[in-house]
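G., the chain you wanted modeled:
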Amino acid sequence: MKAVLQRVRYCNVKINDKVECEIGTGMLVLLGIENGDNCDELEWLCQKIAKIRIFSDADGKMNLDINSVGGEILLVSQFTLHASTVKGNRPSFMLAAKPEDAKLLYLKCAERLNELVEKPLKKGVFGADMQIELCNDGPVTIVIDSRNRL
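Predicted structure as tokens:
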């Protein structure tokens, strides 16, 4: 399971030019689910996302987590995080979980993050063609891979 965290000043998801959801200060989390990912990895990843200190304190140091700044999370499913570009010029998505499996873990991730973060979680629509508009703050972009946790 991979997540790309982007610290944002604002972010919204549009579908067919209509705003589906939006947040202010917080994180856009792009979530990629791979074949074989499980609930243990999901729990570890959700804990990491909720506790990661990527927000600035009074001294300008990244020392605060999402709850410390009263931030929001916008979660978006992103199967392309598991693209393989080893052969040729067309990415292969064979490592990405099948949609029916990925959707279950995506919804569990949303549920768990909603429990861990004080403000209600916002999420994109699984499998939809979405346009994401954001102001990356910093910019701060962090990649977390549950298979590299040792």
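The longest helix spans residues 99-116.

Shout if anything looks off.
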